[in-house]
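Thanks for the sequence, V.! I ran GrpE protein homolog, mitochondrial right away. Repeating your input here for the record:
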Amino acid sequence: MLQRTLFRASRQAARSLPRPHPFTPIRQPAAASLRWYSETPAAKEGESTATDSKPAEPSETTQLKEQIGKKDKEIVDLKDKYLRSVADFRNLQERTKREISAAKDFALQRFARDLVESVDNLDRALTTVPSDSLTSSNPDLVTLHDGLKMTETILMQTLKKHGLERIDPAVEGEKFNPNIHEAVFQTPQPDKEDGTVFHTQQKGFMLNGRVLRAPKVGVVKNS
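Predicted structure:
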C-alpha cells in the first residue's frame, strides 16, 4: 500500500517538470577547457629548426663599414701611387739636368780642344818677337805686337767666362802635381826646392775645373 502511494507521487512529480525541446543543441565544453595539439613532432635536443639554420643578413651599418674600409684602402693605394709618380718625375728631372749639363760640357770640350791650338799659335807669335826689338825704331812692329797682345787678353777673358782657363805653373813656381801636370824632364836647380816646376814647355788648360790638357813642365830634382 505504501509502495503504491510513493510510485504515484513520483509520477505526478515527473509530469509537473517541463519537457526538453526536441532540437535543443548539445552544449560544447568551454574554450578554456579545450586542448590543441601540434601535429609537427618536437625537435630533439641539439637539433636546430629550419629558421635557425638561415644566415642572418648583414645590417646596414655593417655594409657601410665595409664600404668605408674599401674606400680607405683605395685612398692609401692612390696616395702611394701619387708619391711614387712624384718621386719618379723628380728623378727624371735631375737625370735630365745632368744629361743636359754633360752634353753641354762635352760639346764645349770638343770646341775648346780645337780652340786651344789657335791660342797656342797666338802665344807663340807673341813670344817669337824679342823684347829688345820693340823700340821706337820699329813702330809698326810695336803696334802689331800690342794689337796681338790685346787680342790675346780679350780672347782669354772670353774663354774664362765659359770655364776655359790657361795654366802656366812655372810663372808662380808651383809644386809638381801629377794629377794636373805632365813632367817632361827633371834637372837640378840649387836655388830651388825639389819638386818645384821651373819651366813650362807647353801651357795647359782647365775646363770647368777639370784638366782639358795637362801642361808639359820641367821639374827640379837636386838629389
